[in-house]
Each structure stands twice: as structure tokens, then as C-alpha cells.
Amino acid sequence: MxxxxxxxxxxxxxxxxxxxxSMIMDLRESALSREIxxxxxxSLAGCFGVTIYAIAIxxxxxxxALQREGRLRFFAGKRLxxxxxxxxxxxxTWVFLCWFSMYPDPDFTDYLRESIKSNYELDANYITYTGSxxxxxxxxxxxxxxxxxxxxxxxxxxxxxxPFITILIFGYKSYMKIQRLMSHGESxxxxxxxxxxxxxxxxxxFVILELPKIKWHQWFLWTQRWMWPEINFFFxxxxxxx
Length: 242
What we know:
Layout: H1 2-10, E1 13-17, E2 20-26, H2 34-67, H3 79-101, H4 106-120, E3 127-133, E4 135-137, E5 143-145, H5 147-179, H6 188-226, H7 228-241
Antiparallel strand pairs: 1-2, 2-3, 4-5
């Protein structure tokens, strides 16, 4: 619900232009200050982090439920509070990275000005956004690498990879556990029931991620194109120096 409310307030434009990627909010008809508007934009991005971490925890819970060895005690009582804090911390980390490494700046705004005007009829003087502008061209035409934006983009990629890897690992382990149920004395009916529950879980998470995944896959593909070649170039030069 919070995700939907923030999306309604921000009404984001997901924009990829050259060596930049940004999520933009139009402020022309907004009564919000730039700081508050940016906080809403960053919080909307953070909600995606909360969602994928909650989904990953759901897969962990499903795997422990299949163990039938009292493993669900890890989700009982006060331990349940711990699992709830993980997605919240991930979302707050996401907001922190946006605020301290992907805050709007004059160079980035000027770089977006013509592009957002032609694509969305937005006025760069009345927007706020979060994003990365990796290769920055100064007044002398010299290309500079923005380390701050690169570190922010790297941090977001790490935040996304952790839950996605968790989903793959525990999804696979749950599937293999279901396949071996009959060899552990369970009936074919139990196996079919557990497989139906497993498929329902996978389908549910797919639907939850269906809309935001389109936007954030653009982000992921953009980072592969613009950020990782620069990081590889840095490490190759570092190796040559050594």
C-alpha cells in the first residue's frame, strides 16, 4: 500500500539517457519542497528493495517449512521481529544510497535538460530525481568518471543481488526437497500438494515483481553497459601498476 501511495505521489519517469539513468519526479504541479519530493522519490526506490527482500525471506520460510524438523521455530516469537527488520533495513539502505550518492546536482540536471524536454516535455528547473551520471563531460570537453555515482550504483546492484541469489538458492533447494518427499515416506498426495504450494509461491512473487522489474531491469542493464566496463578498466590499470 505504501508503495502504491508513493508511486501515485511521485508518478515517476524512468529515464535512460547516454551515460545516465534516473527516476524523475515532475514538480510543476507539486506543493512539495525539493527536499521532501526527493525523499519521496528515494523512498519509492527503497520500497522496491523492501519488496524483493520480503520475497527472499518468503522463500527461506517455505524451505524451512518443508524441513519438518522444527525449523519454523526460527520464525516464531521474538525471532519474527528480526525477519521483519531485514526488508526495512534494506529499504533504508537504499534511501541512504540515493540521498548521499545519487542526489541531484547541476551537471546532471543540465545533462538531462534537452532529453527530458524532448521526451516528456519536462522542465529541468522543476524536477527532482535520483540516479547516476557516470561519465561527466566538463566545459573543456574532458570526460570524468563520477566515483560517487558509481559507488552508489554498485551499492544498489549489491543490494539487489543478495535477495535474488537467496531466491534462486532456496527456490532450488525447496524444489529438490519436494522431489525427494516420497523417498522420505511421504505420500504422492503430499508431494503434489507441496508442489502446488511451491508453484503458487513462485507465481505470486512473479506477479508482485512484474511491474517494477521492467523499470529496474533497465537499471540493471544500464549499469552493465556503463559502470562495469569502467570498474574493469580501473582494476586492469591497478594490476599493471603493481
